[in-house]
Amino acid sequence: MGWLKKPASDTQLTHGDRLWLYVVAAIIMLLLVIPTLIVIPMSFSASQYLEFPPETWSMRWYDVYLESPKWMRATVTSMQVGVLTMLLATPVGTMAAYALFVSGHRAARALFMFLITPMIVPVILIAIGTFYAYGRIGLNNTITGLVLAHSVLAAPLVMIVITSALRNYDLNQERVARSLGATRLKAFFVITLPQIKFSLVTAALLSFLTSFDEVIIAIFVSGGTNATLTKHMFAALRDFIDPTIAAISTIMILVSTTLLLATQFLGAKQK
Amino acid sequence: MNSTTDSDMGSGLLNETLLRRQEKREQRALLSLALPSLLAVIAIIVIPVGWLFYLSFIGDNGQLSLEHYQKMIEYKSYLRTFTTTFQVSLLTTLLCILIGYPLAYFLAILPARVAGFFMLAVLLPFWTSLLVRTYAWLVLLQKNGILNDFGMAAGLWDEPLKLVHNLTGTLIGMAHIMLPFLVLPLYGSMRKIERDMMHAAANLGASPIQAFWKVYFPLSLSGMVAGSLIVFVLCLGFYVTPAVLGGGRVVMVATQITAILENQYNWGAASALGVVLLVATLIILFVASKVLKLDAALFGKH
């Protein structure tokens, strides 16, 4: 255990002096991760009741999920809305980020702050506001309405990711291309885009996940055959504890973990 | 700032005005790229929220009135909602600081590469659906849930503790969900603290504890304040976790808004509550941005 006596800090503490910190941090990290992952083993339980560890294992709850038209329909809706949100929010957010960053206009900073207000306004307010407004124009319970609202939530994230990518990128390269005769559009697509492509993919994944995991707007604005997975899950959580939710949760964890690892990987590449 | 392909540099004043005009035109063309984004925010945020703002001033008889705001002052149930919201937000923020500070500190003293690995413990929950995590806590904390089973098996307590469908459960769930919002900015500000500072403090005779409280802690404050504010503001408008883990006993503003809509379909009253929530959020963020220069952090300098 010589390791404990080694100096660890700039103020001449040893690892031994800091052992308490390591223990506390380990406990906190476990407390963060365990509740996130605990539903995975539970989803494979054969019992009606959620138990840990399960006494008998089965795929029973996955079968219930896969055979339920309601859950399947909701999954398809959530996927559709997520992909469409990604396809809308990524270009729209990227265009805005590029415009505001490159223009250097006086109003650019104020405009940027205005465009990220969807992150600031409490989501419950956006939810009831769109619900009310959509009611007037018949957009409630439609995919279009939900995609629009989710895109507005996701676009600020895209803007932040792309702005930070542009900050690390030398815009003079684009100027060189243009001085050699390329149009701005061509210079962007040929010179800039390939160099920020990893950030672009990260932004796209973030938009998908923003929509896929969104609950509150979906509760209000989606419904009928276009209700999302999260809307049905929320309703189920309020009523009783249904082990099917554990199976669906596991699938959702799988989706977000995959996307998280993808962005970490892309982030490392971008650097 | 835009480049020019003009090779004729010596052609004087006329050319200069032309160039400036061209630059202006191009700047305008560039800014128009932000137009779709702008229109979307106006259509989905400004108009609907503006509409709610208007509705909040329309009384039940259809006339312009302040009755919804008056009710907030007169009725005890509103007062209770505001107190609960404030209390839950404050307690969650304090819990996050208490748990988040040691964690961020631990991550900040590790070599960057190793910290990146342990950071996954913060990022994994951050990226997992909030609904999934709320559900997990429901399962963990319920009467015959894992935590109660474990506690009783270990002889820590004899009867199942009431851990969920109350304030305790709400706080546990919310702290878990909010923690990354505190840890990430705090970690960022801790990473920026130069190690030489601590060397210097030690060199000048400070004990490790003195060096921490006199040098390190004040330097980490900006990140802590920023993170705490984000957590507090997000808590104010929180809906899902209090609704599920509070089991109807923890009525926060967002819960009350939906209850008013579901039970009374009273848009004026619901909107008025929403307006109060928005104004409170904006005031806190405005003060914070003056103190912390949030826009500079997000947008950066040219």
As for the number of domains of chain A, it is: 2
- Largest beta-sheet details of chain A: none
Number of strands of chain B: 0
* Helix-strand pattern of chain A: HHHHHHHHHHHHH
- Distance from N terminus to C terminus of chain B (CA atoms, Å) equals 12 Å
What's the pLDDT, averaged over the residues of chain A?
A: 89
Q: Which outline of chain A best applies?
A: globular
Provide the domain count of chain B: 2
Contiguous helical run count of chain B = 15
Q: From the structure provided, what is the oligomeric state, counting identical versus distinct chains? A: heterodimer
CATH third-level topology of the largest domain in chain A: MetI-like fold
Could you tell me the strand content of chain B as a percent range?
A: under 5%
Helix/strand order of chain B, N-terminal first: HHHHHHHHHHHHHHH
The average pLDDT value of chain B, as a whole number, equals 86
Shape-level CATH architecture of the largest domain in chain A = Orthogonal Bundle
Structural class from helices and strands of chain B?
Answer: mainly alpha
Helical residue percent band of chain A: over 70%
Low-pLDDT residue spans of chain B: 1-9
Low-confidence stretches of chain A: none
- Computed structural class of chain A: mainly alpha
How would you describe this structure to a colleague?
The complex is a heterodimer of chains A (271) and B (302). Chain A has 271 residues and is mostly helical. Chain A folds into 2 domains: 1-31, no CATH class; 62-270, Orthogonal Bundle (MetI-like fold). In chain A, 73% of the residues lie in helices and 0% in strands. Chain A contains 13 helices and no strands. In chain A, α4 packs parallel to α7. The longest helix of chain A is centred in the first third of the chain and has 35 residues, at 69-103. By secondary structure, chain B is an all-alpha fold. In chain B, α7 crosses α9 (167-191), α9 (167-191) crosses α11 and α11 runs antiparallel to α14. Chain B contains 15 helices and no strands. Residues 1-9 of chain B have low confidence and may be disordered. The N and C termini of chain B lie close together (12 Å). Chain B has 2 domains: 7-55; 71-299, MetI-like (MetI-like fold), CATH 1.10.3720. Classes of the chains: A mainly alpha (271), B mainly alpha (302). Chains A and B meet through α1, α4, α5, α6 and α7 of A and α1, α2, α4, α6 and α7 of B.
